[in-house]
Specification:
Elements: H1 8-12, H2 26-47, H3 53-57, H4 66-82, H5 91-109
């Protein structure tokens, strides 16, 4: 299969490979590829502005971050298995998916900082400082 970021071995670590290697099921292959792209988009939307997305998703197979691999595989499998019968989805997959989404929300909020993710750098290789946001608005209307 032509994945952008994952390999077949990445799926083998989380699900029995026999479930994903049915050569006669072309729809399954297309679904896995499409759902991998969607998983990358979901993760990218949470990591943008904090980490270098190009460095994360264009890394060589040996240099990929294992946490990101886990996140992409979990989201891809959840979306692929859910397309058949949502009510028959094993609870383990739902719990893993919910945990991944909660972790991504924490990363987006800055409450969780995964090790090994490349930060955004400028042309000189210096890490770009994160912008600070403030608000001078007061909700106390009484003087």
């Amino acid at each position: 299969m032509a994945y952008r970021f994952l390999t077949d071995a990445d799926f083998d670590a989380q699900i029995f490979s026999t479930l994903l290697k049915d050569e006669s099921d072309a729809a399954l292959k297309l679904s896995l590829e499409a759902n991998e792209k969607k998983a990358i988009a979901i993760i990218s939307s949470r990591l943008t502005g904090r980490y270098s997305l190009a460095a994360i998703f264009d890394a060589d197979e040996d240099e990929r971050n294992y946490l990101i691999i886990h996140y992409v595989v979990t989201i891809t499998l959840y979306r692929t298995l859910k397309r058949n019968a949502a009510r028959k989805m094993p609870s383990d997959f739902k719990e893993d998916f919910d945990m991944v989404m909660a972790d991504l929300d924490k990363i987006m909020a800055g409450k969780l900082t995964p090790d090994g993710l490349p930060e955004i750098t400028d042309g000189n290789g210096k890490v770009v400082e994160k912008p600070m946001h403030g608000n001078r608005r007061t909700t106390n209307f009484y003087i």
